[in-house]
Design goal:
Layout (H helix, E strand, L loop, with lengths): L1 H5 L9 E3 L5 H7 L3 E3 L2 H12 L3
Parallel strand pairs: 1-2
């Protein structure tokens, strides 16, 4: 996130995080656009962003 912001590229990319060690609170804290806590949830989230926010 820091690199994307500092390079001016943040708006070009959707940042999605997920998996066991992550939490929705952490995703919000770092400024991620979404957090998928399970594989099905991650697929839904990725599809949403692939179609456009």
């Amino acid at each position: 996130m820091d690199y994307l912001v500092s390079s001016g590229a943040r708006k070009k990319f959707a940042v999605l995080v997920g998996g066991g060690p992550t939490t929705k609170e952490w995703a919000k804290e770092i400024g991620a656009d979404g957090c998928g806590m399970s594989a099905p949830e991650a697929v839904k989230l990725a599809n949403k962003f692939a179609k456009g926010r």
